[in-house]
Specification:
Elements: H1 2-8, E1 21-25, E2 31-36, H2 45-50, E3 60-65, H3 77-84, E4 88-93, H4 103-109, E5 113-115, H5 120-126, H6 128-136, E6 140-148, H7 166-177, E7 181-185, H8 186-192, E8 211-215, E9 234-235, H9 241-250, E10 255-258, H10 262-270, E11 276-282, E12 307-315, E13 318-325
Parallel strand pairs: 3-4, 4-5, 6-10, 6-11, 7-8, 7-10, 8-9
Antiparallel strand pairs: 1-2, 1-3, 11-13, 12-13
Helix pairs in contact: 3-4
């Protein structure tokens, strides 16, 4: 199963479909074929592995996610495994999808031995973004901000370029590329005129570009740099975050990267809609009132938003703190 998990990581981290890996083993446990999903419209991991053998009879399929049981751009993997004649299927995580779930039951009905829950914690962590989106019916939400050690996002005059160094800023571009969409508020667009592209060290566009999404009711000038983005921007004309997330989910967006200023970040935190925090800390003190977060609905220490630290990365002189809500009670869309 761990090998299947490593195969899954070869697939794209963006898009409506999850990263899935599959290995086929014979009765003695020897791997005879392997596969992974390469994106929407391409063969799923199970079908990719099956295509490499002339006969699957007597083999066991080991898959990171329960085989799907619906007809989408490709056929159901449960039926492919049944038709191929595999003896058994072992999977890690159950598919929570309303349409795609149920593959294990279908396999059992056809007489295939099925075992689920193998390395479920490791697989669930690897699929955390997609699983969260499917279970909550809204995109997985990452909120990012950069601040001084005393929690300021800008100096007293509003200047903020640059609080962090080049290594940290490049890491942000990598995280943009790993997201389906990048969200900012109208205030950020009007004040900073960002391009919202994912760029490499030399300023070149990375292969995958997130769809820019602008949240807010103020009009955006047609000459704004975001309007020239390689992906057509989504101008919501709204501040209703749950509804916006619902609409993005309906468009097939499963991971959004919130990179607006303190107002938008605080709105997501206050609404309980954040699944992951990326906090870049620079070894500098700024003082003043320009905080990285404003009002998030915490009136007393008992209401504090408790977080669990996943990891800390060192990026030049800066630190990246990756955290998640400690109680994992982020909300659904509308």
């Amino acid at each position: 199963m761990r090998h299947a998990l490593s195969l899954a990581a070869n697939g794209p981290s963006t898009g409506v479909n999850p990263q899935v890996g599959c290995v086929l083993v014979d009765a003695s446990g020897v791997i005879v074929a392997e596969g992974w999903h390469r994106g929407a419209g391409t063969p799923h991991a199970e079908v990719d592995a099956l295509s490499q053998v002339t006969s699957a009879k007597g083999l066991t399929a080991i898959v990171t996610l329960e085989p799907c049981n619906h007809q989408g751009l490709t056929g159901p993997c449960s039926e492919a495994l049944i038709s191929a004649g595999v003896d058994s299927v072992v999977f890690a995580v159950s598919d929570p999808g309303e349409r795609s779930g149920g593959g294990a039951e279908r396999l059992r009905e056809a007489g295939v031995q099925v075992e689920g829950g193998v390395l479920v914690e490791e697989a669930s962590e690897a699929l955390r973004g997609w699983l969260t989106a499917e279970r909550l019916h809204r995109p997985f939400v990452t909120v990012k901000w950069a601040s001084s050690l005393d929690g300021r996002a800008a100096a007293a005059d509003g200047s903020s370029k640059w609080i962090t160094g080049t290594a940290a800023r490049q890491r942000v571009h990598e995280q943009r590329e790993q997201s389906d969409a990048i969200l900012v508020g109208t205030g950020t667009v009007l004040a900073d005129d960002p391009s919202l592209t994912a760029r490499g060290d030399g300023g070149e566009l990375m292969p995958h570009q997130p769809i820019p999404v602008v949240v807010g009711e103020r009009a955006i000038p047609a000459a704004s740099r975001v309007m020239a983005h390689p992906r057509t921007p989504i101008i919501t004309g709204s501040r209703d975050l749950p509804t916006i997330l619902d609409q993005l989910f309906a468009r097939g967006i499963r991971h959004v990267f919130v990179e607006g200023g303190p107002t938008l970040a605080s709105a997501f935190v206050a609404a309980g809609l954040v699944d992951e925090y990326l906090v870049y800390l620079a070894p500098v003190l700024l003082g003043g009132e320009r905080l990285a977060l404003t009002d998030i609905g915490v009136g007393t220490i008992g209401d504090a938003r408790r977080l669990s630290i996943d990891r800390i990365e060192s990026l030049g002189d800066d630190l990246l703190v990756v955290a998640r809500p400690a109680n994992v009670s982020t909300k659904k869309g509308t």
